[in-house]
Amino acid sequence: MTTSRLNTSFVAVHERILLNHIVERLPQWATPDHLTTIGLWGAAITGIGFLLCNISPNFLTLVAAGLAINWFGDSCDGSLARHRKIERPKYGFLIDHSSDLVAQSMIVIGLGCSPYFTLCSALLVLSLYLLMSSYTYLRAAVEGVHRLSYGGLGATEFRIMIALWPFVPLALGPGVVSGRLFGYAGIDVVISLLALCTYVIFVFLVRQDLERLDAEEQNEDNVVRLHSVSQPGTRRAVESRAATEAEGVLSYTEAADRK
Question: Where are the transmembrane segments (predicted)?
Answer without folding.
Answer: 38-71, 116-138, 158-177, 183-206
